[in-house]
Amino acid sequence: MASRFRSDRRAVLAGLSALAVPGLVRAAEPLRVFAAASLKPVLDEVASGARLTYAGSGTIARQVAAGAPCDAVILAATDWMDWLSGTGTVTAIRPVARNALVLAGSEGSGPVRLHAPDLIERLGPGGRVAMGDPMSVPAGRYAQRALETLGLWTALQPRMILAENVRAALAYVARGDVAAGIVYASDATAPGIAVMAAFPPSSHAPIIYPGAVTRDAPAKAATFLDALAASPALTAHGFQAV
Questions:
Q1: Which of 61, 143, 186, 211 gets the most CB atoms within 10 Å of its CB?
Q2: Is 166 annotated among the ligand-binding residues?
């Protein structure tokens, strides 16, 4: 299995190189990429030569709008990208990836129905659930909407721990600080994490990752986004192709 994983990883890296991302890995002036925190595993692998900044999409959008040095930006929600576009800061917006929403627990956590009595019983007395803060984190907004659609928000809201980004919510789960977390399907591929339930796609808006380049970005910024959207690294890390 380990040998196969190493082989798949080499294929992903070779595939991205073959897609002609000039200077991405060994650039004299590294490409400056601001990205939603949930993209960290895949970008750390295929774009390690770039200057990578991760945070919640709302935080990223405000930083870029305020003039943070950035060439390419990838968010986890179209509404934040629409807002950023309205500031005149970015151009050439295109979808890069898709994702899904799941309820995750520590390794060994069995499946559970997305039904209030079942969830409350599984959480146990005082059991908490982590998710991104809906005020600034797209994963949190998707989660709140999904829980509302399924009639679960009222029962679970008192048990919520709101995190600054979805990777922070995942960290709560990994450390055993909470009984479960609502994260992206791509996050649930991390070691020591198990999917307890998948939220129906109809329970929330489509999870689309839009990418864009800033007004003064070099041409390689747009090439980078196109190559990433076509890279098998995304699906290898649990994302869905656009």
A1: 143
A2: yes
